[in-house]
């Protein structure tokens, strides 16, 4: 997962494999790499806001893992939910200041 970064940065602090990398950038130690490889836990609050009949509640239900409902049922109240996601990124892009093409 971090092999591309290791090739660019090197294995020792200060050992740079690419001249475009900013000064002061160091390689990530092994214990931190293993920790990030297992995924990262995030705690965030999301507000979904918009006009009537635009799919806010449908999006909210899908984020909770519920099925999409075809019928329109207007929501009259504020909805609050705690959602636990087990998300592990499979692909990471490091650009080092270069735009993604």
Automatic annotation (TrEMBL):
One GO CC annotation: nucleus
Keyword Nucleotide-binding in record: yes
One Pfam family cited in the UniProt record for this chain: Ras
GO MF, one annotated term: GTP binding
Keywords in alphabetical order: Nucleotide-binding
Keyword Ion transport on entry: no
UniProt xrefs under PANTHER family: RAB-LIKE PROTEIN 6 (PTHR14932:SF1), RAS GTPASE-RELATED (PTHR14932)
Name assigned to this protein: RAB, member RAS oncogene family-like 6b
